[in-house]
Amino acid sequence: MTIARWMVGAALMLLGSIPIVGNWWFIASYVARGERRSVIPLVGGLLVSFGLLVLPLEGIRRFWWLPLLCDYGTIALPIGLAASWWHGHRTRTVLRQGEDTDSSRDT
Hints:
The chain is mainly α. It has one domain (2-76). The chain is 79% helix and 0% strand. The chain contains 4 helices and no strands. Helix 1 runs antiparallel to helix 2. The longest helix is centred in the last third of the chain and has 35 residues, at 72-106. The N and C termini lie far apart (78 Å). 20% of the residues are buried.
């Protein structure tokens, strides 16, 4: 059973490290050459986190959250969602203010 947990944990961490490295590679290529590419949210961080939880080491399990912070795709997701919500909120507020102004002109 222990060998199976080592194998599954290592496989999950190896598979998860590919999108994590790819996400940071996309950021580096944007900074260096201005190439725009989409990052992959959550996949790498979650796979490595699950890999850490599967490993038969008690001390390492408490660090399950660390891969989520190391994955740029996972970091960018809540920031992008918050920015999108804020932009939509501001747009709706401006539109409502414009409707109030237009309705007052009609009278």
